Amino acid sequence: MFVRRRWTALATTSILIAAALAHPGPGAAAPPSPAITLAPTETALVRVRLADRAQLDRLVAGGADLANRPRSRDGEWTADLVLTGRQLADLTRQGATAVQVVQRADDGARHLAESRRAAQERTRAGLRTSGAAAVDTLQFLQAYWWTTGGRTFLQAQVATTATDDPDVEITVSWRTADGATGSFPLYRFEDSGEYQYHYALPQPVPSRPVQLTATSTLGGTSRPVTPSLWPNATPPPQPAGYQKDFIDAYLTPVDIKARIARLGRQYRDLVDVIDLPNKTQGYRRTAAAYLGDPAAAAVVVESVRFGDQGMNGVQVRTVDPGRPNRPLNMRYRDRVLTISLATDGAGKVTSTTDDVAALINAPRGARFRATVEDGSAGLPMPVAGPVRLDDGLQGTEVPSRPWTVQALRIGKHRDGSRIGVLAYSQEHAREWATPLVTLEFAERLLANARTDAATRRLLEQVDVFVIPTVNPDGANYSFHDYNFQRKNLVNHCTGASRDPKNRTMWGVDVNRNYTVGSLFDGYVGASANCLSGNYAGTAELSEPESRNVIDLAKAHPNIKLAMNVHSYGGYFMWPPGAYKADGRVTLPRPSIDESTLFLGSARRIVGAIAAERGTVTWPSQTGPVADVLYSAAGNSADQLYYELGIFAWDFEVGNDRWNETTGQWDGVGFQPPFDEAHAEAQEYAGGLVELVRVARDYAADNPVRR
Ligand SMILES: [Zn+2]
């Protein structure tokens, strides 16, 4: 079944490519599959099958907004990309095929509104054969099975010793306890030019598999192995009357602030609300406008102060003095900046766009700054305006002050005498489900401490820190202006990049701004381009958002375990999270003992996640960041682990869902319909509660030293 689907997919690809090239291809007789299209300026999150590896490399080099690790299968690369219809059309022309619109821009707002409405309603009511002798040896790196939703799945990773032969094909044959057999192909996975292993996405099998064998086209055969049950760990049963389900709608940063305050009041004996030391910029931007016509000749004029600091609504214009031999000059009066253009002896205007921008930028302590619009350099400056400067921000319920990021500290003994656990979420603004996870977790601990003896004992033994939203400014922008916003709201761009047409591309990737294994140290997976989705900032820890996480961890040295909660894709990861490209040299690997702790704890936590609705995080997506996702230079977990000695994990909540109809795994996106986000919050909150138990058990063997 798998093989047939694969060939169907290939045939579809050739049809679409053939159609794009406007001449009939070999598969022209087959029915065309419905094409996925976006309006040219529409932005969406799309799962795209790329033409080839080179296309992926071009996307990465160009700073494309990759939402997930690209998956390789039989030489085909699939990636989740945030892109416009125009960019998708370009990719399609170059041979790519859109296979799933994971999320459209409107979906965020719609799912927010639906979640709130529903909450209110509740309140009211193919193989080459080879005869040659075997020239490679095969070894299973992973062989696991599990059951979810009545379906049994199997996943395997196999390494060949023929690491340099890109054409080796590996097939895994399986047999179940009741004698059924089948097989599926594995795909070569390379990262940064280095062979890693062969693997496949989880495969449905009719019942429990008991034996696997791998064979290669070079004649290699593995020893038969018995796959293990994954994760083979079950949390203690929740007692009767265990309280959960505290989240009934998506929560904006304003909602989160209110929730934190409410928890602080309601559970005074168990909670401190901590104001983190570094205020963010706030939900604010400078006010800007085009003076002139960007399609012809224009200068971008921008306030130096933020729009809410009296600069929204200020007007700017150029005027023809109407007399000969006048100099270029400007005056600012009654909130109108008037630029009188220079004239020659015949009274003809002689000022250029560059002259006007230079004039606006000239005064010391200037109120305004200006850049010549890209493409308008050296052109005659038109008589234009008045135009109104505006910060472009749409949110009306958001205070426009610097924002104080807050943490909850939960436990009976909040004095550093108990082992500390830190859970933090929404470093990336658009990951709306993630604060739901940490807040559900916090409230489960607090509510059950009153009614459940086991929870009460846990809070006697562990000191829990929770930062529900690390990046509230970006989150406010994601909720009110541009749902795919990933970064914070600071604009470090200079020159033409400050053109308002780039307004959705500014900001620093908070999870690339830390100090260990950073871009500035030469590691892969962050960008120096201020418009890139992975922009690392102007320096390590240049951003208050990242400084807050580290300052909290440093101020509380009893914190020994941490979880950085992201979405989406269903990953469970730990250091190393970055490598240098040349030779793929990762940050140091944890010791054997530490690796055992990371993996053993991961299995317990994966088991607890699965206890809620059967979601099983794949073994192939459980492991070091650099191995199972991608290199993420300057991420927070690496800094917590390497600098502060904290066991630091990362969740990517929102696992792919098995689609019984198509026989494929579907991505869920950053802002799924609320029912899905709600389910993610429930299951990953269960995972965080298990992390607290892991901390308790760790402390039993490693008492906190004061
Ligand atoms: Zn993220």
Automatic annotation (TrEMBL):
> Which cofactor names does the annotation list?
Zn(2+)
What InterPro entries does UniProt report for this protein, alphabetically? Peptidase_M14
Catalytic residues (UniProt): 652 (proton donor/acceptor)
SMART domains recorded: Zn_pept
Q: Which UniProt keywords apply?
A: Carboxypeptidase, Hydrolase, Metalloprotease, Protease, Signal, Zinc
**Segments forming domain Peptidase M14:** 368-695
Transmembrane segment boundaries: none
Renumbered to this chain, the signal peptide range is 1-29
Q: Which GO terms describe its molecular function?
A: carboxypeptidase activity
State the SUPFAM superfamilies in the record: Zn-dependent exopeptidases (SSF53187)
Q: Does the keyword Glycosyltransferase apply?
A: no
Q: Which PANTHER family match?
A: PROTEASE FAMILY M14 CARBOXYPEPTIDASE A,B (PTHR11705), SLL0236 PROTEIN (PTHR11705:SF143)
- Family membership: Belongs to the peptidase M14 family.
Q: What is this protein's name? A: Zinc carboxypeptidase
- Organism of this sequence: Micromonospora aurantiaca
